[in-house]
Structures are given as structure tokens and as C-alpha cells.
Amino acid sequence: PIRKVYAREVLDSRGNPTVEAEITVGEGIVGKDGYTGRAIVPSGASTGKFEALELRDAEPRYRGLGVQRAVEHVNTVLADAVLGENALCQSRIDCLLLEADGTEKKEHMGANAILAVSLAVADAAAKAMRMPLYQYLGGCKSTQLPVPMMNILNGGKHADNTVDFQEFMIMPVGACCFKEGLRMCAEVYHTLKEFLKERKLSAAVGDEGGFAPDVQGAKEALAMMAEAVKRAGYTLGKDICFAIDVAASELYEEDKKAYYFPGESFMTGTEVYRTAEEMTAYYEELTETFPVLSIEDGLDQEDWEGWQRLTQRLGQKVQLVGDDLFVTNTERIARGITMGAGNAVLIKVNQIGTLTEAMEAVELAHKAGYRTILSHRSGESEDTFLADLAVAAGSGQIKAGAPCRGERTAKYNRLLAIEDMLGETACYDYKGINGNLRK
Ligand code: PGA
Ligand code: ZN
């Protein structure tokens, strides 16, 4: 049973407070010493409107971002709810946490408080069972290593540059295994750095470790990445493909019913707006020019009809990922499935607030033939739960940032360890939207 529940306020990769929970289990399951699991909750910057609530203190300390109330909730109400419970019953634990909160968006306790407990319980249970976390969560069928979507060029809310799309990622689809894929991406990353320096562009990095140069727009960014891939000795479209996260909800202006591009406007000296229709045409052009396999949040989080049209136009050949659109919420995912909006779901545990609900989101998506991608947040920590969860979910894809910055490499390094543990049974195989994209 769960013997001890304890939380503290720690820092995330942006230097902002977040919740860490420690759960100790023992006796009923194991010997008298017990096992302690832990988890640190991540935090987003371009958060979706429909995400579960992240509770912040709104007091002067930490400029209003303290999480002392969330920590207090773990140490009192949530501890009371789960003490003595069997840590192996994850769904029951998560139910108890939800009951203790009682609101839809987890406003009373805070999704950050609830999630810290939910994840730490799983970690403790895995330790008590003496199983690696990925295996405890996913069973013995968990042998699929995810293809990384490595964010090597940052923009939008994650950097102070002029790039309006938030993320430009490379996917090593032609690698034979995760380890080789990681190497290919790191090589391209360093080649891109070299290239930026030659062009006297900044090689400083954004929140997720990708470079943040001042370039005009998506075409220029993708062209530079294409050059870096070639220079690193890889074949674009075969060894390495691209993915983008537009984070379009951040660009959308309700009164104008259009998407504003502040960086592009600044660089060109003219105000650049694009309607949903123009955005769709823009994506068509980008996917015809570059091997872009995946477009995330291409349209606003409330534009269901726009998403439907976008999916009709591009869904046969491009993975269209809903992040702010779906917020790992089964009700929203179900609506998307019914409408044919998007064809893939980004899974972020802190958007929904419990492990069980996140797993349900994965299951619902997979049953409907939607792909899933397990994802970090722009504010992360050294916690590696995500890597194990990606293998357990069998998603085949992960977003964990650049091959740079400890909080990002922690996840990739954990995947290397998992691949080693799986040995011969490990698989790594990128299946595109129409089956296997490898030519
Ligand atoms: P966030 O960004 O963590 O800042 O929300 C990540 C994403 O949009 O995928
Ligand atoms: Zn996103």
C-alpha cells in the first residue's frame, strides 16, 4: 500500500516552479523498507485553452508562478485520498484523485498537484514490482521505440526570434534503430549550427533547445534545414523528413478571423495575415516543396470546420496533429474522430492531469486509426517518465525537443537505455500515414 505521499516545489527548465511528488509504497507489496517513486510535472508556454488547470499561487514570490498551494494540496487532501491504497491499481488511484478534486478542469487541487501524484504512484509501483517503468506501464508487448520528432529550430512563444511557426523538427525515418536515429539528428543539429554561423545568424537556442535565428519565415527555415541534412550526408525525404508545429492558436486573431504573422511582417515590412483557407494553401505549398510528414496545430483550437477541411485536403498524405485542438481530452478527441478533424493526437499528460486519462486518450485515438505522439512540454525537467510512456503506449513517435539541453537529452538518453534493455526484441520502424514511408 501507499505509505507516504510527499510533494515539494522544485524548478523546471525555464527556472519556474513546478511540483515534484514522492510516493513510498511498502509492506503489502514488498519488504519493510519500501520503494519510493517520484515524478516532476512539466509546464507549457503555448498552452491550449481547454487544458486542465495548472495551479499557480499568484503571490509575489517567484513572480506569481509559485506552486505552494498545489504542493500543499498533495501533502494534505490528495495524500489523505490515496494513503493506504494499492499502488498497483492505477485507475482506482486516479479516480480517487479526481474525486478529491471534483471539478472538470481540476481547478480545486490543480492538475499539476494531481498529475505529480498520479505519475509518482506508477513509478513507485514499477519499482515495487522490480520492473522497468515502460514494461510496467505497457506490458511485454512494449517493444516499439519511438521515432523522434526533434525540434531543431524554435520560434513562436518558445523563442525571441522572428520565426512565427513554433517548431521545426527532423524525423530520422530511415534509421535502423533509435540509437542511429539519435545520432543522425545530432549530426544534422550540429551541421545546422555551423551553417547558421557561416551566414552570421544567431545559433542561440530557444526553450526546447532548437536554434532561434531571425529568418523570414517557414520556407527559409525549412530550406536551411534541408541544406543541413544534405551537408550532414543524409538524403532528404529518405533518411530524414520534416515535421512542423505551427501552434496556430497563438497566431489567430478572433476579430480579424485570420492568422497574424508578426515576425514575417517585421521582416518584410508589410502586415502579413493569412485566413484558414490561405493557411491550408500555404501548407500544401510547403508539403510539395519539402518532405513535411507532419503538421501540428495548423489551425486554431476552436476551428473544427477548418480542421475538417484541412484534413480533407491534406489528410491522405500528411499527419495532421491536434495538440491545442484535442488537449489529450477524450471528449474532444471523440469529436475530432466523428468530424474527421485531424488524423493524429498529441499526448501531453499534464494537459489532462492523470496517467489513466492520458492512456485512455491513446487508446481511443488508436482504435479510431488516429496516430499518437507522446510529447514533452516547453517547460521540462530531468524526469524521464515520458520516454517510458512513449514505449508503453506503442505510439511510435515522440516529441522531446532538440538533442541539446539536459531536460531534453534526459528523455533521449533514457530511450537509449530502454533500447539496450529490449535488446533483440526492440523495434524501430516509421510507418507513415499510408503505411511504411521508407522507399
Ligand atoms: P508548450 O509547447 O509546451 O509550450 O505548450 C509544446 C507544443 O505546442 O507542442
Ligand atoms: Zn504543439
Summarize the structure in words:
The strands form four sheets. An eight-stranded mixed β-barrel has the order 4-5-6-10-11-12-13-14, surrounded by six helices. A three-stranded antiparallel beta sheet has the order 1-2-3. With 439 residues, it is of the alpha/beta class. The chain has 14 helices and 16 strands. The radius of gyration is 21 Å and the shape is globular. The protein is 39% helix and 17% strand. Helix 1 crosses helix 2 and helix 5 crosses helix 6. Bound molecules: 2-phosphoglycolic acid and zinc ion. It is an enzyme of class 4 (lyase).
Q: Largest sheet, described in full?
A: 8 strands, mixed, barrel
Helical fraction equals 25-40%
From the spread of the alpha carbons, the general shape counts as globular
Give unreliable regions as ranges.
Answer: none
How many alpha or pi helices? 14
Mean pLDDT: 96
Distance between the termini: 51 Å
Order of helices and strands: EEEHHHHEEHHEEEHEHEHEHEHHEHEHEE
Bound molecules: 2-phosphoglycolic acid, zinc ion
**Nearest-angstrom radius of gyration?**
21 Å
Strand percent estimate:
15-25%
- Strands of the widest sheet, in order across it, are 4-5-6-10-11-12-13-14
How many beta-strand elements? 16
Oligomer: single chain
Q: From the helix content, strand content and strand pairing, which structural class follows?
A: alpha/beta
